Every structure is written in structure tokens, then in C-alpha cells.
Amino acid sequence: MQACAGCGALVPEIDGRVHSYVPSSPGCWKTFGEVQADEMQRFGYPPAHRLVVDAYMAQHPGDGSDRRDRQSVFVHLVGLCAVLEGGLAHSHATQVLRRVVQRQDDFPTVKRTLRPGQLSVLHMLGAADAADYERRAGEWATAVWDSWSTQHELIGATLHAVLGGARS
Ligand SMILES: [Zn+2]
């Protein structure tokens, strides 16, 4: 076993495929794939899907040298903020994120200064049913969001700017 470089989860030490700009250990990336396959098979496309993807991507920030990494971390943090703080429905959050990407060509590098949070993708394994899956996703997403507390102001301001623009 090894600790994932991004989230700290203890995952099998394997040689495997990783995402080109998401710095997860192969065992963690594989687990994320398995969680998503299991989710699709058991629950279809549940509302919690949005949170699961946002939580995973936001928990694996790169160094910001790749524009796609900067955009990914920033936008997925806005996604967590939209659902957890803004109380937006998942489908609405998805529309909001599309607008965030459309209005900005590039994104600042956001740095996580705290530990990656107590929960990881491993928390999603073994969910009893759809309700349990959603509950676990909320707990994990909250832990990830809390680990980015030094960036809450910036991310929240971006969310408000997009929501404000939608109303005018
Ligand atoms: Zn990881």
C-alpha cells in the first residue's frame, strides 16, 4: 500500500494509468474509476455524481503549471461551493460551472495550504444504497471543501459573480 500523493488515501501500490494532469497515485485513480463504474451500475446517474467528481478533482490539485489543471481545480472548487454553501441543485451547479468556464480564459493557481482532509474516495466504497452513497458524498465533499478554507473567499466571489450575472 502507499499513500496517494494527492489525497493521502492508503491505496494499493500498482503500476497503472493516471490522469495526465491530476496528480493521483495509480491506485487512487483506479479506485476513483471503480467507484464511478459502481455508481453508474447501481444508481444510474445520481445527483451525488456532481459532488463525487468535484470532491475528487479538488482533492488532487496539481502545481498549477498546466492550464487545464488550474482550470480543473478552480472550477471543481466552485462546484463544491455551489452545492455545499450555495445550496444549488446539482443540475443548476453544472450550468453555473459551464458559465464559469465560459467567462474566464484562464484561472489562477489556487494553493491548498491545509492537509487534504480526513476523507477520500475510499469513503465511497461499500455504500449500502443510493441514500447512503449521497450521504457519504456529502461528508467527503465537505471535508475537501474545508481543506480549502483559505480559498473560500475567492471561490465564493467567483460563484456570486456568475450567479449575479445570471439574474441581471
Ligand atoms: Zn488520491
Give a short summary of the structure:
By secondary structure, the chain is mainly alpha-helical.
* Average pLDDT score: 94
Return residue spans where pLDDT drops below 50 for at least 5 consecutive residues. none
Main β-sheet, spatial strand arrangement: 1-2
Sheet with the most strands? Answer: 2 strands, antiparallel
Topology pattern, helix = H, strand = E: EEHHHHHH
Tell me the total number of β-strands: 2
Fraction of helical residues:
55-70%
Strand content: under 5%
Radius of gyration: 15 Å
Distance between the termini: 52 Å
Q: From the helix content, strand content and strand pairing, which structural class follows? A: mainly alpha
How many DSSP helices? 6
What is the overall silhouette? globular
Describe the structure.
This protein has helices at residues 26-43, 48-58, 67-84, 90-103, 130-147, 152-167, and strands at residues 2-3, 10-11. With 168 residues, the chain is mainly alpha-helical. It has one domain (44-167). Strands 1-2 form a two-stranded antiparallel sheet. Helix 2 (48-58) crosses helix 3. The longest helix has 18 residues, at 26-43. The model has no long low-confidence stretch (mean pLDDT 94). The protein binds zinc ion (ZN).
Task: Give keywords.
binds zinc ion; 6 helices; mainly alpha; 168 residues
Secondary structure topology:
Elements: E1 2-3, E2 10-11, H1 26-43, H2 48-58, H3 67-84, H4 90-103, H5 130-147, H6 152-167
Antiparallel strand pairs: 1-2
Helix pairs in contact: 2-3, 2-5, 3-4, 3-5, 3-6
The protein binds zinc ion (ZN).
